[in-house]
């Protein structure tokens, strides 16, 4: 494993991703983790990330005592990036001068002449490179035995190394694409300098996870899982099912807030294609009766969350009755970014509020259930989960589905969701919109697209008759992670066709609007 100690740089995840893209397993942990934690992971290479701190600041984060002795005794290669480089310099006896401000920028660097071996000892790496440098503190005196192997055009230290002791440092970010030779340098460092062999494959992840689950879940234990119809819970359940077979019990809840034919479609996938043991609970009545007359968005979400828990609780009791034993484990489709985000290093600017999704998760649990968690995807990124899904024979179409919120259509109908036939109208409009997007072959360009039902009526004229019907809005956004988003630029002809189709075929709609707000200031969903 290539272990990354995170000191709060916004690019730390990117390093992990870049290394995994070389088929090398890499993990990020908090940069102040204990030596025991590091030893337990038994890394071959350790990368110290960048970060917003000055090594001189009080409480500046650092690797644990005994770290240097440990890496040297084990022959572990250490690469410091930006702040990481300065930590190496300072802790090994060099001098880091305090800079006035910290900023990032493009810069040209030049690799020293006659560099043989080491960071740049590969003829494919250009001598002159454009890099993404972080200015700030500066290494002005190197520890003994270190040499400067690249400098910026202004003469600042850009790369250092001590090959004998296996310490290396880059003052710039090789992981960002602005650094032209960055990937080549990382590749050369890991394969040639550190002698790592590639071989981390999704197939191995699958095998390993199955082994872990088999070892964890005893032969008498039963496991439950709430399927949302989304990618993560489906892949997680399929994986656990492969490990323990029908001692896994899944539930899919139809809360009456699902999209057009969604229940039929996902149940078909679960049962016929994935052969998962799934109980489908139709709880439409329970959810809608509790939502009747409720208009406040947060209240709607709370009611839905609570009802999910009730139903899940009932399901767990049913399983207990059936198998004669309380279920011991719960499967959750937690992903790697959720795990890292929930324990951010100090000063990283990342806060717990980024974990907005935790309260979104369907598996919000009754406290007295005391289930242990199985989170088989917790080391993977979203695209890796998709890859794993493919190996598990889940169709690509399904794996590329846009996200759908836990509270379902309730957050796409401002106000009382039970009023009139708003749910029914919304389902039809949404289906036309999504199908048109699929037909136009732009589905994969869009992060999320959906229709919104507006609780207002406007006047129209249809078939020579005056109508007083509902307006609907269309929303489509592009995004990396849902945290920020841009509205998607459809072409006018497409919008014209969709609008006509909707008004011609959905009774009760005579006006179609397009939502052209980004996030921020709006959110993606309307509530
Ligand atoms: P917002 O509306 O906050 O949404 O900009 C960002 C992303 O999160 C999804 N979302 C949810 N997902 N349960 C979920 O599982 C929820 O309660 C929930 N609320 C929003 C939203 O669809 C978008 O992808």
Q: Can you describe what's shown?
A:
- This protein has 527 residues and is an alpha/beta fold.
- Helix 6 (202-216) crosses helix 13 and helix 15 (422-439) packs antiparallel against helix 16 (492-505).
- A hairpin with a 4-residue loop joins strand 9 (147-152) and strand 10.
- It has 16 helices and 20 strands.
- The strands form 4 sheets. A 9-stranded mixed beta sheet has the order 2-1-3-4-11-10-9-6-7. A 5-stranded parallel beta sheet has the order 14-13-12-15-16, with helices on both faces.
- It binds xanthosine-5'-monophosphate.
- Xanthosine-5'-monophosphate binds next to loops.
- InterPro entries: Class_I_gatase-like, GATASE, GMP_synth_C, GMP_synth_GATase, GMP_synthase, GMPS_ATP_PPase_dom, Rossmann-like_a/b/a_fold.
Key terms for this structure?
527 residues, nine-stranded mixed sheet, GMP synthase activity, GMPS_ATP_PPase_dom, ATP-binding
> Which secondary-structure class do the elements indicate?
alpha/beta
Please count the beta strands (DSSP E, at least 2 residues each): 20
Helix content range of the residues, please?
A: 25-40%
Uncertain runs: 351-363
Going across the biggest sheet, name each strand in turn: 2-1-3-4-11-10-9-6-7
What secondary-structure arrangement, pairings included, does this model have?
Blueprint lengths: L1 E5 L5 H9 L5 E5 L4 H7 L3 E4 L18 H8 L2 E5 L1 H9 L3 E3 L5 E9 L16 E8 L2 E4 L5 E6 L4 E6 L4 E4 L11 H12 L8 H15 L6 E5 L3 H14 L3 E7 L7 H12 L4 E5 L1 H8 L5 H27 L5 E3 L4 H6 L15 H4 L11 E3 L7 H10 L4 H4 L22 H18 L8 E15 L2 E14 L7 E2 L4 H14 L3 E6 L13
The structure holds xanthosine-5'-monophosphate.
Pfam families: GATase, GMP_synt_C
EC number: 6.3.5.2
GO molecular function: ATP binding; GMP synthase activity
């Amino acid at each position: 494993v290539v272990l990354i100690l995170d000191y709060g740089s916004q690019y730390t995840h990117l390093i992990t991703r870049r290394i995994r893209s070389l088929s090398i397993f890499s993990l990020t942990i908090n940069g102040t983790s204990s030596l025991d934690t590091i030893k337990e992971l038994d890394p071959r290479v350790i990368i110290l990330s960048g970060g917003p701190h000055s090594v001189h600041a009080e409480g500046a984060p650092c690797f644990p005592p005994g770290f240097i002795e440990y890496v040297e005794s084990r022959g572990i290669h250490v690469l410091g990036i930006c702040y990481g480089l300065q930590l190496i310099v300072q802790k090994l006896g060099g001098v880091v001068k305090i800079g006035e401000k910290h900023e990032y920028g493009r810069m040209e660097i030049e690799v020293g002449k006659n560099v043989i071996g080491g960071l740049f000892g590969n003829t494919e790496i250009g001598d002159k490179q454009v890099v993404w440098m972080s200015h700030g503190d500066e290494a002005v005196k190197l520890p003994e035995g270190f040499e400067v192997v690249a400098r910026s055009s202004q003469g600042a230290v850009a790369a250092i190394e001590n090959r004998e002791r296996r310490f290396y440092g880059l003052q710039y970010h090789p992981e960002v694409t602005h650094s032209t030779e960055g990937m080549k340098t990382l590749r050369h460092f890991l394969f040639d300098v550190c002698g790592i062999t590639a071989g981390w494959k999704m197939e191995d992840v699958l095998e390993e996870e199955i082994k872990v689950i088999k070892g964890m879940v005893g032969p008498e234990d039963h496991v439950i899982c709430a399927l949302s119809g989304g990618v993560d819970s489906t892949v997680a359940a399929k994986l656990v099912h492969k490990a323990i077979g029908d001692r896994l019990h899944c539930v899919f809840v139809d809360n009456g807030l699902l999209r057009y034919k969604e229940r039929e479609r996902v149940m078909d996938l679960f049962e016929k294609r994935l052969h998962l043991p799934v109980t489908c609970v139709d709880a439409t009545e329970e959810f809608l009766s509790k939502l009747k007359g409720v208009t406040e968005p947060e209240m709607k979400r709370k009611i839905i969350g609570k009802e999910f828990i009730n139903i899940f609780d009932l399901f767990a009791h049913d399983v207990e009755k059936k198998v004669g034993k309380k279920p011991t484990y719960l499967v959750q489709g937690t992903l790697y970014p959720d795990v890292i985000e929930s324990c951010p290093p100090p000063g990283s600017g990342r806060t717990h509020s980024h974990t907005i999704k935790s309260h979104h998760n369907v598996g919000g649990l009754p406290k007295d259930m005391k289930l242990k968690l199985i989170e088989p995807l917790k080391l993977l990124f979203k695209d890796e989960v998709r890859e794993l899904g493919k190996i598990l024979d889940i169709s690509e179409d399904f794996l590329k589905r846009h996200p759908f919120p836990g509270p379902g259509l309730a957050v796409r109908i401002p106000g009382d969701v039970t009023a009139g036939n708003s749910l029914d109208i919304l389902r039809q409009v949404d289906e036309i919109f999504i199908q048109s997007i699929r037909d136009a072959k732009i589905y994969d360009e869009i992060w999320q697209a959906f229709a919104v039902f507006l609780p207002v009526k406007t006047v129209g004229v249809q078939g020579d008759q005056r109508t007083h019907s509902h307006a609907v809005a269309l929303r489509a956004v592009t995004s990396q992670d849902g945290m920020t988003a841009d509205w998607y630029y459809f072409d006018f002809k497409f919008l014209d066709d969709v609008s006509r189709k909707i008004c011609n075929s959905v009774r009760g709609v005579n006006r179609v609007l397009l939502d052209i707000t980004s996030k921020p200031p709006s959110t993606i969903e309307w509530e």
